[in-house]
TrEMBL record, chain A:
InterPro entries: RNA_pol_sigma-70-like, RNA_pol_sigma-70_dom, RNA_pol_sigma70_r2, RNA_pol_sigma70_r4, RNA_pol_sigma_r2, RNA_pol_sigma_r3/r4-like, WH-like_DNA-bd_sf. It comes from the Bacteria. GO terms for biological process: DNA-templated transcription initiation. GO terms for molecular function: DNA binding; sigma factor activity. Coiled coil: none annotated. This is RNA polymerase sigma-70 factor, ECF subfamily. Residues 25-93, 126-172 form the RNA polymerase sigma-70 region domain. Belongs to the sigma-70 factor family. ECF subfamily. NCBIfam families: sigma70-ECF (TIGR02937). Keywords: DNA-binding, Sigma factor, Transcription, Transcription regulation. Gene3D superfamilies: 1.10.1740.10, Winged helix-like DNA-binding domain superfamily/Winged helix DNA-binding domain.
From TrEMBL, chain B:
InterPro entries: Anti-sigma-K/W_factor (IPR051474), Anti_sigma_zinc_sf (IPR041916), RskA_C (IPR018764). It comes from the Bacteria. This is Regulator of SigK. Pfam families: RskA_C. It is a single-pass membrane protein. It comes from Lishizhenia tianjinensis. One of its GO terms (cellular component) is plasma membrane. Coiled coil: none annotated. Signal peptide: none annotated. One of its GO terms (molecular function) is sigma factor antagonist activity. GO terms for biological process: regulation of translation. The lineage of its organism: Bacteria, Pseudomonadati, Bacteroidota, Flavobacteriia, Flavobacteriales. Its main location: membrane. It is found in: Cell membrane; Membrane.
Length: 187, 276
């Protein structure tokens, strides 16, 4: 359909070096990318710097995006996630020793971040059982491997595997509702 | 066969969560290139995660955009060799108005740089462009959301249609002597040659064991692959048989990790007969 063509065109324009395309992409995706970065690094100033770096990277590396491998949005998410986790690790290395124990429980206490509240989607994301949420948190937002997650949370590797599977399934199931609400909020 | 096992292996989830090393990542990409059904599964996982990430959306401070546009204005893009022709074409096109502007500027005696600068910053033009961008972005967001919604609805409806289809048989797999409480359902549709596994009650296997699904066809066991440890409900799985009438039963055994070539009879957990 026409939309698909539009996004493809936009990516094509970006790959051709048209600055206007990047501006349009910023308007469409900056909120989502910034939300992801903020969720990972939990610091406004740092998140803003990372967002800027990532858009520069999206601009510079546009030609390495390969549409046959996945959507452009997912590609941008990966750019932002990887950069954020790198930066987070740099910060964590400085802080190390301060709170080696117990940051798993810290997160559990902390619950869902404020960003979600502002959008009003708290309930839906809350539907994900805590143990699955924790897996998403460690694998996706903290960038741990399954083995590291298993060590950190002190649960068997097999459980990490099955929970990540269930988490994806649950995300798929809530997908429709999330979109419905997202449409209401954004259009 | 191979693609189905791959989908159940858990690698795709890891890929989507970004928890794989470089080597495994390449393997997943190879499998996606080889098997459209693996790619489809991976894409749907990515979509779901992307939709989740969208729920975290937060508006960055307004000045960031200008900072980014200023930064990239100084920076060349990294080019890939194979794409050079199309790139140079694009460049020629976008340079044309600038050249025009430059020659006009010369005619009027302004410095070229000064003219380019003012032309770019023309306020009316900027305001107009911004408005236009906003409208386009909004339209795209809306249309994109509708498409995503439609696709996922289609996916859910597919599931329901399959289970309610007249040709879908419910096969109850009951626990054997050693596993009296175990129970699994299989929805099997001979016409569409697909089945869904729903495990109602299966004890969690020990770390070195895994469940393996078998079809008994004409008295012989046919390997349908190992099951995820905590599988509750599978996707629709393709199952082609030359002669559907020869399908006699489905069974699940408890095997060493990765499964066995032949089923271990004493490790049979559940079995259910397929009635014609």
């Amino acid at each position: 359909m026409s939309v698909k063509v539009n996004i493809e065109n936009l990516v094509q324009e970006l790959q051709n070096g048209e600055e206007q395309a990047l501006a349009t992409i910023y308007d469409m995706y900056a909120d989502a990318l910034y939300g992801l970065i903020l969720k990972i690094v939990k610091d406004d100033g740092l998140a803003q710097d990372i967002l800027q770096d990532c858009f520069v990277k999206i601009w510079q590396k546009a030609q390495t995006y390969d549409a046959s491998k996945g959507s452009f949005f997912t590609w941008m998410l990966n750019v932002c996630r990887n950069k954020s986790i790198d930066e987070l690790r740099k910060v964590d290395r400085h802080r190390k020793g301060k709170d080696e124990i117990g940051h798993a429980t810290d997160y559990q206490k902390q619950g869902i971040e404020r960003n979600i509240d502002t959008i009003g989607l708290k309930d839906i994301v809350d539907d994900l059982p805590d143990d699955q949420k924790l897996i998403v948190e460690y694998l996706y937002f903290k960038g741990y491997t399954q083995q590291e997650t298993s060590d950190e949370l002190n649960i068997p590797l097999g459980t990490v595997k099955s929970r990540s599977r269930m988490a994806i399934k649950a995300l798929k199931d809530s997908f429709v509702i999330v979109l419905l609400i997202w449409i209401q909020k954004n259009i | 066969m191979k693609s189905k096992e791959y989908i159940l292996s858990g690698k795709l989830e890891n890929y989507v969560f970004g928890a794989l090393g470089a080597e495994d990542r390449l393997e997943v990409e190879r499998m996606c290139a080889l098997y459209p059904e693996v790619k489809k599964e991976k894409d749907s996982m990515e979509e779901a995660l992307a939709a989740y990430v969208r729920t975290l959306s937060t508006r960055p401070p307004a000045e960031i955009k200008a900072r980014i546009m200023a930064a990239i204005h100084q920076l060349p893009q990294e080019k890939l060799l194979s794409k050079v022709p199309s790139v140079s074409k694009g460049k020629t096109r976008s340079l044309a108005p600038v050249l025009w502007a430059a020659s006009i500027a010369l005619i009027f005696g302004f410095g070229v740089n000064h003219y380019l600068d003012t032309a770019r910053k023309s306020e009316v033009e900027l305001a107009f462009k911004e408005e236009q961008e906003k409208l386009i972005a909004q339209k795209e967001k809306y249309a994109q959301a509708v498409i995503e919604l439609r696709d996922s609805l289609r996916y859910e409806r597919n599931y329901a249609d399959f289970v309610m289809d007249e040709q879908t048989n419910l096969i109850r797999l009951k626990g054997t002597e050693n596993f009296p409480d175990a129970s699994v359902k299989i929805f099997y549709n001979a016409g569409q040659q697909e089945y869904i596994v729903k495990s109602d009650k299966l004890p969690m296997p020990s770390a070195d064991k895994q469940y393996q699904l078998w079809a008994i066809v004409d008295g012989k066991p046919l390997d349908l692959g190992v099951m995820d440890k905590q599988l509750v409900l599978s996707d629709r799985i393709n199952f082609e048989l030359k002669d559907q009438a020869q399908l006699q039963a489905f069974a699940i055994t408890l095997e060493p990790l990765g499964g066995s070539v032949n089923p271990t009879l004493e490790a049979m957990v559940v079995i259910g007969e397929v009635k014609a």
